[in-house]
Amino acid sequence: MTGERPHPAGPAEPAAVTLVIPTFNESANVRELLRRIAESVPARLPCEVLFVDDSTDDTPAVIADAARDCPFPVTALHRESPDGGLGGAVVAGLAAATADWVVVMDGDLQHPPHLVPELVATGERTGAELVVASRYLPGGSRAGLAGGYRVAVSRAATWLAKGLFPRALKSVSDPMSGFFAIRRSAVADAVTGDELKPLGYKILLELAVRCRPETVAEAPFVFQDRYAGESKSTAREGMRFLRHLVELRTAAPLARMVAFGLIGLTGFVPNLAALWALTAAGLHYLPAEVAANQFGVAWNFLLIEVLLFRDRRRHRHFADRAGRFALLANADLVVRIPLIALFVGQLHLTVLPATALALLTTFVLRFAGTEALVYLP
Ligand code: GDD
Ligand code: MN
């Protein structure tokens, strides 16, 4: 990562707020954005601007040029690899911010800069650690959300997130908002401890769920039309959002074990389908059972890779992880029958409870083994 500070002379007063602005090919917007920030923020609140840029166009050059006329420091941080997308950029910005307050806003002017001092003032007045600019409060609106389709998607996403995280999002009416103020002290530990795992657009959700800011306030805002260019959000971003929800919901070990079990249950579908196909092709049912089982194992492996252990894959190579997972899954089958015999013989259980207990035991062992032997914590 490289940083540059095109504006060498800082303000006399230290900045009270760092504006963290993620940019991906926003060269047609950044000049006007800085102009509007200059017009409405520094007179009310000493500020600095920190762009976190993943652009492939000339945005960095435009920033450097526009920054010369700015009455506040402007820094551009260029990321060499755009890890985590928009959310990853914001976390990099949180790590580099210096003021007590950080305001996160988009680089396309959909978030009105003149609200920045008001968001911080609301936080100061209420003592809140997080102030969300919400489209769903009286006085707010989502005027700039182009088309009924995006409105419906945004509504469904909000409803889903609030359903999955009722406590963390209790006082957040707009968890999908990308415009908010947060006290740096509320996120500092999570940032330095590498606890944030942003995945795509919904960085507010990530911070609200993982950092649990003590009190949350909100202020209404009108989501404007984009100044220039087009949204960078794609269908892929929708898939990332669903993965992000699963990851946040399964952060606790017990929740991860339940998810592991549910994924395991879905593995019956490819398993039975393969069994049907192989026996239909004339294979004897016993070798077919063993082969079909591998389809279920592969299915489960791919799902847990993507949904449960994304941030723990780097410790081993793909083939190593796949081999270990397959070994554990097949050991499960081998161990189950002797275990049932043990439970019947030693614990004097009848066959059904013994089988249930054996299934449960091997399941817990397989989960623990997957955590410890496939994906080192
Ligand atoms: N650094 C970086 N890296 N910036 C990015 C990336 C990335 O991979 N992807 C997008 N951005 C920047 C854009 O350049 C823009 O400044 C800002 O993030 C928002 O991106 P848009 O593409 O304009 O997003 P949107 O308008 O569709 O969505 C916005 O509104 C939603 C509410 O409907 C965002 O604020 C969402 O977070 C928000 O949920
Ligand atoms: Mn936008």
How many domains make up the 3D coordinates?
Answer: 2
Derived from helix and strand composition plus strand pairing, the structural class reads: alpha/beta
At CATH level 2, the architecture of the largest domain is Alpha-Beta Complex
Helix content: 40-55%
Net shape: elongated
Sketch the topology as an H/E string, one letter per element: EEHEHEHEHEHEHHEHHHHHH
Q: Could you give the distance between the termini?
A: 27 Å
Low-pLDDT sequence parts: 4-8
The radius of gyration computed from the alpha-carbon positions, rounded to a whole number of angstroms, is: 26 Å
Fill in the CATH topology of the largest domain: Spore Coat Polysaccharide Biosynthesis Protein SpsA, Chain A
DSSP, total strands: 8
Heteromolecules bound: guanosine-5'-diphosphate-alpha-D-mannose, manganese (II) ion
Mean pLDDT, nearest integer? 93
The share of residues in extended strands comes to: 5-15%
User: What is the helix tally?
Assistant: 13
Main sheet properties: 8 strands, mixed
